[in-house]
Amino acid sequence: MNRKTLTIIALAIFLILMGIGAYFFYFKKAPTTQAPTGAFPGEGLPVSGTPGVGTGEGEGEAFVPGGAAPLPRLYELHKLPVAGAGFAEVKDKKGAVTSIAARYIERGLGHIYETPLNTYTESRIVNETRSRLSEALWGNNGKSVAIRYFDDTESAIKTQILNIGAFTTPAKQATSTEATSEFLNVEEVFLPDYIPFMALAGDGSDKLFYLENGNASSAGFIATLKNTSVAEIFASTFTEWLPQFPNQKLVTLTTKPSAKVLGHLFFLDTKTKSLTKVLSGINGLTTLTSRDGSAVLYAEIRNGLPELAIYDVVKKETRQIALQTLPEKCAWSAKSVIVYCAVPQTLPQAEYPDQWYQGLFSFSDNIWKIDTKTGVVEKILTPSDLRASSLDMINLTLSSDDSYLLFMNKITGTPWVFRIATDAPVVASTAPEVTLTEPTPSVTEGMQKIR
């Protein structure tokens, strides 16, 4: 065998050995164990058959209700999208809160759940199914919920009040097959079809305000949640109103906002039916009025971005707030001095508030506390510090003692709760740094609130 042949054979053997080595190096590496990217649903943890998963402060283990682990401050209450969430509280004779639970109703099947916030153990409390809900507003201290849905058979937008009453039949906890509590009785009250907007009284009374639109006019009505008394208190030739109902004596009406439209805010006295202009001629105006009606948190679109301000209704004075967000992402304290806001970490270049309403992009929010008397703002939550993924917070609601903040994640539609604490907030007297970015597509299409 000549030298050339030996060289060819040696080269072939070398290439074969190299190929075998590459195979074992790239495809037969020993498996490695990798921790999930997060400890919340949708981040690598099994979610089937369990309620929401969260972690405690600085803890690496997933929290499971009923165990010995401390309750997490930030917690996802339910696995599926909900139409709305609210608080149900028990108070003693002196008015002090003795227990607090969160109640929420699913979008898909309309199942109603309750989670006590001292255990995070979820239970289904109503034995009925209502499909394809679009919106639910809780009121009357969690005893009533107004729901809206589209009825295919009648091709109409329907509105009902569900008044939740006494226990009737055995119920089951969401994570158990054994009966541990009872189902609650529900009384259904039907309201007129095609209600465009409604609001339940924010002071916990059993009142509801809703609008009805004609061809070229609108009318506003006050009703009890059992619909035993209905009174028309408002009429207008303008039909594009967004109502709020801070307390049973006051309804606020804000013109529907748009990036390039001047907005106006009116106060409506429910007893005298008198209408008073409070704010006027503000670009892209969106508002949130305190529970006693003494102050209005509002946003004005300046240089393409929403800038917050507080208007003192009594003194007729305006104070600029060093934060950029929308009032729809805020909640007033019952004392009407403190307000909590979800503030985006970055603000996409967009037309506000239109494109956010349309679900064309999402935010990743922190929670800030605002003292409206001093103007001082404090950051009290960065979700990533508690191993939470991006949260675009909407429908913020405070418990009456300011101990808990309930909200929905606009990205997933799921309800979350945050236990408010006073430990070591980050204080800022100037605006936090906000980065402008290009819009990021959102996954909220088909889950938007009827507007």
Q: What does this molecule look like?
A:
6% of the residues lie in helices and 44% in strands. By secondary structure, it is mainly β. It has a domain at 326-451. The chain crosses the membrane at residues 7-26. Keywords: Membrane, Transmembrane, Transmembrane helix.
Search tags:
about 450 residues; single chain; disordered C terminus; four-stranded antiparallel β-sheet; 2 helices
Low-confidence stretches: 23-53, 55-60, 168-180, 423-431, 437-451
Chain oligomer state: single chain
Say how many strands there are.
Answer: 31
Cα-to-Cα separation, first versus last residue = 87 Å
Number of helices: 2
Which sequence of strands runs across the widest sheet? 22-23-25-26-30
Mean pLDDT: 82
Task: Give the overall silhouette.
Answer: globular
Helix content: under 10%
Structural class: mainly beta
Strand percent estimate? 35-45%
**From the alpha-carbon coordinates, what is the Rg to the nearest angstrom?**
26 Å
| Largest β-sheet summary | 5 strands, antiparallel
How do you describe this structure in short?
With 451 residues, the protein is mainly β.
